[in-house]
Write a structure and sequence with these properties.
Blueprint (H helix, E strand, L loop, with lengths): L1 E8 L5 E9 L2 E3 L9 E3 L3 E5 L1 E6 L23 H15 L3 H16 L3 E6 L6 H11 L2 E5 L4 H4 L3 E2 L2 E6 L8 H13 L4 E5 L3 H11 L3 H7 L7 E5 L5 H9 L3 E4 L1 H6 L7 H7 L2 E4 L8 H11 L11 H8 L1 H6 L17 E5 L16 H8 L5 E6 L2 E5 L2 E2 L4 H24 L1
Parallel strand pairs: 1-4, 1-5, 6-7, 7-8, 8-10, 10-11, 11-12, 12-13, 13-14
Antiparallel strand pairs: 1-2, 2-3, 5-15, 9-10, 15-16, 16-17, 17-18
Pfam family, one: Amidohydro_1
Protein name: Amidohydrolase family protein
Organism: Halobacillus kuroshimensis
Length: about 425
């Protein structure tokens, strides 16, 4: 396929006018072949597929249940905590595997509609393999955290889905568990991920037990490297950040959930200054990457020179940095020769279609971030295959998933009512 008359976000982070081709699912700028399908892209701006570097598949079902409550207080003795406990009981003991994956697919569909083509899912549900099937059915990419099942999934790939494993949250850190992780790392080469120094509670737990951060503990045991992905990092010290940079470990910035839970704001400017690879994650409940990107942009302006960070930095975090976090930066996150054709076609509007750009000044990426509307995200392609055309999913019945989601929420409400009467 040849994409002509295109405006696209190039590997240098600028909008470029021209065109390129897709051959065997990959981008090429080589001369075209004969009798090739041509798509006129005059009305679109094309950007790389975005990567959601941290998410929990069941979480949209919990929308509103965790409001105005810190993580350590979830499922406490309050009325809200009682409902939360019933929610987790419902997930663990009542909800079927089929329904769990329909909730996950509801989330993934919403992500695709904001331009996400890759998701890192930290809640595999009853089966990591079946969750990978749910991802593949939509046609997108991802990585599923298998936790302690990594031995079964080591070196496996299912379609467009990889499998990783988990480190420890601070409340779970013990000498025995750390030794187990060391042995596991020697046995299995896999992406290792975890929530890390997410809030003051977790910070205080590890310092009270060990006198140092979980980052320092991981460093001492050889568990930090380019295959390690740490979520949140709100309470990382400057020394922690330097350790992370030295080991080429990645951090996933999740400001929406951090503010939801009162965790605070991660020092992303310092991380970037020290050379940490920072990507973005919607984490809990949220699925819209563009909303997240806008928040990230404004968060970078807090107590910083107003010209220090730009929309270009945010686009990089949402695309290539996410790919780098999972060892895919040679394949994903850029419109560049030889990269996979994971592409988002954004329909131009009265703002984004008339951008100003020359060698001295550009408003193009800024307006693309702030003036694009949900309905402007028109088509999404993964490896040259359409997964959304004209905002309609091509591989799955979206209406069926939406109806199932409504039924599941109603089923949960009935479950709560029954338990409260018993």
């Amino acid at each position: 396929m040849k994409l002509e008359n295109a405006v696209f976000l190039n590997a240098e982070g600028c909008l470029e006018r021209g065109g390129f081709r897709i051959v065997n699912g990959k981008i090429t700028f080589q001369p075209e072949a004969q009798e090739e399908e041509v798509m006129d892209c005059e009305e679109y701006i094309i950007v790389p597929g975005l990567l959601n570097a941290h998410f929990h598949s069941y979480s949209p079902l919990a929308a509103g249940l965790m409001k105005e409550m810190a993580i350590q207080d979830w499922a406490d003795d309050s009325d809200q905590g009682h409902i939360q406990q019933l929610f987790f009981d419902y997930l663990d003991h009542y909800m079927s595997q089929e329904l769990f994956y329909k909730v996950a697919q509801k989330s993934y569909i919403e992500m695709v509609k904001s331009g996400i083509t890759f998701v890192s899912d930290s809640d595999p549900g009853p089966s990591p393999w079946q969750l990978s099937e749910a991802v593949n059915e939509l046609g997108i990419r991802g990585i599923v955290d298998t936790y302690e099942e990594i031995g079964e999934y080591h070196n496996k790939i299912n379609g467009r889905v990889m499998f990783g494993t988990h480190l420890l949250e601070e409340e779970d850190v013990t000498e025995e568990e750390l030794l187990k992780l060391q042995n596991e790392k020697e046995a299995y080469k896999a992406v290792r991920m975890t929530h890390c120094m997410e809030n003051k509670w977790r910070h205080d737990l590890v310092y009270e037990a060990f006198g140092r951060s979980s980052v320092e503990l991981y460093h001492e045991r050889g568990l930090l490297d380019e295959g390690t992905v740490l979520f949140h990092g709100v309470y990382l010290s400057e020394k922690d950040i330097e350790r992370i940079a030295d080991h080429e470990t990645s951090v996933v910035h999740c400001p929406l959930s951090n503010l939801d839970t009162g965790a605070g704001v991660a020092d992303v400017p310092l991380m970037l200054e020290k050379g940490v690879n920072v990507s973005l994650g919607t984490d809990f409940v949220h699925t819209n990457m563009r909303e997240l990107m806008k928040m990230v942009y404004y968060g970078l302006k807090i107590h910083q020179p107003v010209d220090r960070f730009s929309a270009r930095d945010v686009w990089e975090m949402a695309s290539w940095n996410g790919a780098a976090a999972y060892g895919l930066d040679h394949r994903l996150g850029r419109i560049e020769d030889g990269y996979e054709a994971d592409l988002v076609f954004i329909r131009k509007n009265e703002y984004t279609g008339t951008f100003f750009e020359n060698e001295r000044f550009s408003d193009a990426l800024h307006n693309l971030l702030f003036q694009t509307r949900d309905e402007d995200v028109a088509h999404v392609m993964v490896e040259g295959d359409w997964v959304m055309k004209d905002r309609r999913m091509t591989n799955i019945d979206e209406k069926e998933i939406n109806e199932a989601f409504v039924e599941i929420r109603q089923e949960f409400r009935e479950y709560v009512a029954q338990r409260e009467l018993s």
